[in-house]
Amino acid sequence: MTARIGVVTFPGSLDDRDAQRAVRLAGAEPVALWHRDPDLRQVDAVVLPGGFSYGDYLRAGAISRFSPVMETIIAGAKDGLPVLGICNGFQVLTESHLLPGAMLRNNHLHFVCRDQRLRIENADTAWTNAYEQDQEITVPLKNMDGRYTADERTLDELEAEGRVIARYLDVNPNGSLRDIAGITNEAGNVVGLMPHPEHAVEPLTGPTTEGLGFFASILKRLVDA
Amino acid sequence: MARVVVDVMLKPEILDPQGQAVQRALPRLGFGGISDVRQGKRFELEVEGPVDDAALARIREMAETFLANTVIEDFAVKVES
């Protein structure tokens, strides 16, 4: 039996279908989860997709964080449930305090949409183990609130513990501190990533297929477990 | 009915590019002499019943868990008439 990977749809989610497709292409079974339903339907892992859940009202991710499905996901993540938050999903994870820091408006105040080169700096997490350490990949990036921010102590801690999982190369697209594109929690089961690997899984629609590794990683982790 | 106001501001050490953009536009509009602008949010809460210590404590809890993200923002609660 193959792994079941849940993809949450919030009102305003945009990339839930692409995330489901990426899960399917990686060889797992995507399971649609609904924000108002706390039942995770026995999935082995969860993806929080990109978009503008609740219109980014108040702060990006601030209202989604209190949705019924998040109550279950927060409890599960603390018990080791693998969770990947992409873009808006990353914002939901920082608002949930499953990941440290916060996401702020891009420093240039413009929406950014580009193919972004990244370096995978931690290839041990549940969501990055299919990559080589320091592998460089290019995937789309599109956000308005992508400026990762945390206090100096938290940033030093993240660096010292190898919890910066991906860093922007060439340009810093949004003013993110220390060029941080993605981070993980201490246990390595929760990962937040601002760029969009689910848009780089097929040659027809993506700049590369190098995003597939995030989905291949979780499958590998679940099958090995 | 009493009104309680919650002001939410980015912490001083957090870069506020929106405030900077406003500040930079001021001289062009003929408003000189403003050296810095910080932009925040104001919430006006119409409270049912008395605004006693218990009610204020609940509002502070609301501000801390929801209206503000205390990783990046500070908040202040004040009662208006």
From TrEMBL, chain A:
<keyword id="KW-0547">Nucleotide-binding</keyword>
<dbReference type="InterPro" id="IPR029062">
    <property type="entry name" value="Class_I_gatase-like"/>
</dbReference>
<feature type="active site" description="Nucleophile">
    <location>
        <position position="87"/>
    </location>
</feature>
<dbReference type="GO" id="GO:0005737">
    <property type="term" value="C:cytoplasm"/>
</dbReference>
<comment type="subunit">
    <text>Part of the FGAM synthase complex composed of 1 PurL, 1 PurQ and 2 PurS subunits.</text>
</comment>
<keyword id="KW-0963">Cytoplasm</keyword>
<feature type="active site">
    <location>
        <position position="198"/>
    </location>
</feature>
<feature type="active site">
    <location>
        <position position="196"/>
    </location>
</feature>
<comment type="pathway">
    <text>Purine metabolism; IMP biosynthesis via de novo pathway; 5-amino-1-(5-phospho-D-ribosyl)imidazole from N(2)-formyl-N(1)-(5-phospho-D-ribosyl)glycinamide: step 1/2.</text>
</comment>
<keyword id="KW-0658">Purine biosynthesis</keyword>
<dbReference type="GO" id="GO:0006189">
    <property type="term" value="P:'de novo' IMP biosynthetic process"/>
</dbReference>
<keyword id="KW-0067">ATP-binding</keyword>
<dbReference type="GO" id="GO:0005524">
    <property type="term" value="F:ATP binding"/>
</dbReference>
<comment type="function">
    <text>Part of the phosphoribosylformylglycinamidine synthase complex involved in the purines biosynthetic pathway. Catalyzes the ATP-dependent conversion of formylglycinamide ribonucleotide (FGAR) and glutamine to yield formylglycinamidine ribonucleotide (FGAM) and glutamate. The FGAM synthase complex is composed of three subunits. PurQ produces an ammonia molecule by converting glutamine to glutamate. PurL transfers the ammonia molecule to FGAR to form FGAM in an ATP-dependent manner.</text>
</comment>
<keyword id="KW-0378">Hydrolase</keyword>
<protein>
    <recommendedName>
        <fullName>Phosphoribosylformylglycinamidine synthase subunit PurQ</fullName>
        <ecNumber>6.3.5.3</ecNumber>
        <ecNumber>3.5.1.2</ecNumber>
    </recommendedName>
</protein>
<keyword id="KW-0436">Ligase</keyword>
<dbReference type="GO" id="GO:0004359">
    <property type="term" value="F:glutaminase activity"/>
</dbReference>
<dbReference type="GO" id="GO:0004642">
    <property type="term" value="F:phosphoribosylformylglycinamidine synthase activity"/>
</dbReference>
<dbReference type="InterPro" id="IPR010075">
    <property type="entry name" value="PRibForGlyAmidine_synth_PurQ"/>
</dbReference>
<keyword id="KW-0315">Glutamine amidotransferase</keyword>
<dbReference type="Pfam" id="PF13507">
    <property type="entry name" value="GATase_5"/>
</dbReference>
